[in-house]
């Protein structure tokens, strides 16, 4: 079942990236991302769409960076249920 | 009524309860229609006609004996194939669960059964509820009853197609990023994504435990309201379900929207929208305005945070619950499924926790600014004219197909992170004859209000009663 022959050219972490995002910097980012996923999760890139979408994590990081400074020290996941109650419909 | 399968769910239920028709007759009408059109649509994964006929006869016997009857008594249904029924097949749309039979029954199925409904099959769906289009590598793509080369929307593809093609009175869908509203929009039916925590998810296949929602797809808003009254409410087996009281949603459908403040976003939701879609929404707004609603254009706050955080949370949660199969059998998934999950493993835990931690404050900021000015928001459910299955086929398409694929759910995803209730109802047709959906969202637990507005719209329009062209196939013309 593995490796996927249709994308064997870019199975090796560090190999040139041939997807929609080009450039050495993106190839390095993708290679590092693939290596990290393999190290931490034991999961290989399943296919080219996976690689292309992994490369787009660079956009996720950029978007996240733009939100830096908004997290408040007391924020925590459980505050969501409280927010649902605080903002809920009181009359139809 | 020339064909019982054309009844709405509430009409069918009320007809059985009054003794006007039998449940057996409803079931047979659905089967006959299904046999005629499903070879074109591929909306089902399995059926159990024998058990369904037993249930139908039992329902009819209860009517004859004048036993107490539930509000869905004798109504046959099929649901997205991820609602567990102990001992019955539940494929979750995947080869990995092709023969899987759970040993528990979902609370929502138990509640529907207690109200008198029964199931007669399992519906096609995106693999593990993970696409907005209706592609399925294992069971085959689901096709749109209005124009079969076009997408049905997903992930509740068979739910939308079967209800639209009028061989199923009601189907449960699940909505993690739009999976109820998208097929509702694409197939020209009504679909409700409730407030996060409003409906129990016990016994329902998980995808993203903070974003998953259970809700109905039906032909009318009234049908949705009746189902919501049955399935909503706290469930001790789902500790995340809210203890909020459940109103009689059907009773709230008064048609009176005078003074309702309807907000129309000027940012995000109409970005790059196709002209036929924008025109249909404007016409829908005019209908509501004529009923006395007040239209306000406004810029929505915190949308960058909603998009960024929401995408992080759902991707990490989906990746996490599929990690074992992604290690052991990744090629069992469609390429667009495994490919989309793969980046989730690279998102750092502090990103995920921050995204979850900001959810409450972001909701508060959004609600304070928006719901102080308007009661509901109206947007297109899908911004573009419906794409074809080929145009959104990541598995076989060129690089860049992902962009078209992801654009389908751009207008629905925000309400999942925000946890807000939203409904999609049909409001027009694009140049290819495919339906256009009107999305109406409200503040937390405002299901009654959004359904009231949507029902008012349906009182003055006939998009929801228009039959799709697939019903004009020769086999159907005979009935």
What does it look like?
- The complex is a heterodimer of chains A (92) and B (479).
- Chain A has helices spanning 24-41, 48-55, 57-66, 79-86.
- Chain A is an all-alpha fold and 92 residues long.
- Chain A has one domain.
- The radius of gyration of chain A is 20 Å and the shape is elongated.
- Residues 1-18 of chain A have low confidence and may be disordered.
- Chain B is of the alpha/beta class and 479 residues long.
- Helices cover 37% and strands 13% of the residues of chain B.
- In chain B, the strands form 2 sheets. An 8-stranded mixed sheet of chain B has the order 4-6-5-10-11-9-7-8, with helices on both faces. In chain B, strands 1-3-2 form a 3-stranded mixed sheet.
- In chain B, helix 5 (157-164) packs parallel to helix 6 and helix 7 packs antiparallel against helix 16 (447-459).
- The chains are: A mainly alpha (92), B alpha/beta (479).
Features of the shown structure:
heterodimer; A: 92 residues; mainly alpha; 4 helices; 48% helix; elongated; disordered N terminus; B: 479 residues; alpha/beta; Amidase signature (AS) enzymes; 8-stranded mixed β-sheet; 3-stranded mixed β-sheet; 17 helices; 37% helix
**What does the radius of gyration of chain B come to?**
21 Å
Beta-strand proportion of chain B:
5-15%
Which whole number gives the mean pLDDT of chain A? 80
Give a count of the beta strands of chain A, DSSP E runs of length 2 or more.
Answer: 0
Order of helices and strands of chain A: HHHH
Number of strands of chain B: 11
The count of domains of chain A is 1
Look at the helices and sheets of chain B and give the structural class.
Answer: alpha/beta
Between the first and last Cα atoms of chain A, what is the distance in angstroms? 55 Å
